[in-house]
Design a protein that fits this description.
By secondary structure, the protein is of the alpha+beta class. It has a single domain, classed as Protein Transport Mog1p, Chain A (3-Layer(aba) Sandwich), CATH 3.40.1000. Strand 5 and strand 6 form a beta hairpin.
Length: 302
C-alpha cells in the first residue's frame, strides 16, 4: 500500500482572506489479509447450512402434516372442551363378541341380534359427571322392570309391565349420572327375543307419559341437526359408521310450558335392543348434549 502525500496550498491574496489550515494526512491502518478457508472447511460450513435448512423445513412440514392429519377438535364430541356445549366422553370401544358371533349389522345377522354383553353396550358417563342412584342397577348394571318403569307415569306402569311379560323382554341394563350444571341423564338398554318384539314396545311414542312430563312434543331441532351432528360424530373416528334412518330414532321433549324442570326423551331401536335416554334439568335443557348422547349410544349398538 502506498502512502498519500499533500503539498501546502499558497496563501490567498487579498486583505480580507486568511488561508485555512490543511489537515495532516492520516495513514490508513494496515490490515493483514485473511487467509482463505481450506476447501474441507468450506464443505463443512456448507453442509452445516444445508442441515439447518433441512431441519427447519422438516419441522414446518411435520407441523403442517399434524394439522392436516388431526381432525378438527370441533368434530370430536368426546375429546375436547367444545364451545357448543358437547360433553367430553371417553373413547368408545365395543365389547368383545363370543367366538364366531356376527355383528348386529352383518349380512349373516339379518335380525340384528346383539351377542355381546348388554352391560358392555351401555354408553359410559362423560368426564366431569358424578354417578347417581337414579337408575337402580346392581353391580352388573342389571335393572329390574319395576325400577325401569319408574320413569313412566304411575297409571301407565301396569300395562307396560304386562307387555314385558308377553312381548319377549329378556333383560334391562342402565346407567345414570349428573353433570355439574344439574343435568341428570338416564340410559337404559332393553334386550328382547327378536327385533319383532322391539317393534311392539309401547314405552316410546308421542303419547308416552313420563314421570314429571305428562305431555311430550316432537323434538323439532333433531330433524334439523341430525345430519350435521351424526356426520360430525362419525367423521371423528368413533365406533360405528354409516347413516342411520330416521325411523330408528324418536326424540321428544316436554311440551311447553313445562314446570321447574324440563324433560327430554329419546328412543333408539337397533335390532333386538331398544335404547331409552331420559334427561332432565331445572330451568330447561340444551339440545346438543342430548343429541350427542343418543348418537353415541346408537354407535355402540350398531
Amino acid at each position: 500500500m502506498t502512502e498519500q502525500s499533500t503539498t501546502d496550498a499558497a496563501p490567498a491574496e487579498g486583505p480580507d482572506l486568511v488561508a485555512e489550515p490543511v489537515a495532516e494526512p492520516v495513514a490508513e491502518p494496515v490490515t493483514e489479509p485473511v487467509p482463505a478457508a481450506p476447501k474441507d472447511r468450506r464443505k463443512l460450513f456448507a453442509a452445516l447450512r444445508w442441515t439447518a435448512a433441512v431441519l427447519v423445513f422438516a419441522a414446518v412440514g411435520a407441523g403442517t402434516a399434524y394439522g392436516v392429519v388431526q381432525p378438527e377438535r370441533t368434530k370430536i364430541p368426546g375429546l375436547s372442551t367444545l364451545p357448543d356445549g358437547r360433553w367430553t366422553y371417553p373413547e368408545l370401544a365395543k365389547p368383545e363378541l363370543p367366538a364366531g358371533a356376527p355383528l348386529p349389522g352383518a349380512t349373516d345377522n339379518p335380525d340384528g341380534t346383539h351377542y355381546a354383553a348388554l352391560s358392555g353396550l351401555l354408553l359410559p358417563a362423560p368426564e366431569g359427571s358424578r354417578p347417581d342412584d337414579t337408575v337402580k342397577a346392581d353391580k352388573d348394571r342389571k335393572v329390574e322392570p319395576d325400577a325401569f318403569l319408574e320413569e313412566y307415569a304411575p297409571e301407565d306402569r301396569p300395562k307396560l309391565k304386562e307387555s314385558f311379560e308377553w312381548e319377549g323382554l329378556r333383560q334391562i341394563t342402565g346407567r345414570s349420572w349428573t353433570m355439574p350444571d344439574g343435568t341428570r341423564t338416564r340410559v337404559y338398554l332393553l334386550r328382547f327375543h327378536s327385533s319383532g318384539f322391539v317393534d311392539t314396545f309401547r314405552g316410546c311414542g308421542i303419547n308416552t307419559r313420563l314421570t314429571g312430563a305428562d305431555s311430550l312434543s316432537v323434538d323439532l331441532s333433531w330433524s334439523k341437526a341430525k345430519t350435521e351432528q351424526y356426520s360430525a360424530v362419525a367423521s371423528s373416528g368413533f365406533v360405528g359408521s354409516g347413516t342411520l334412518s330416521s325411523s330408528e330414532f324418536s326424540l321428544y321433549e316436554e311440551a311447553k310450558p313445562f314446570g321447574d324442570e324440563q324433560v327430554r326423551f329419546g328412543c333408539l331401536q337397533m335390532g333386538d335392543v331398544q335404547g331409552v335416554v331420559v334427561q332432565s334439568r331445572k330451568g330447561g335443557l340444551p339440545t346438543i348434549p342430548f343429541h350427542q348422547t343418543v348418537i353415541l349410544q346408537s354407535q355402540l349398538l350398531s
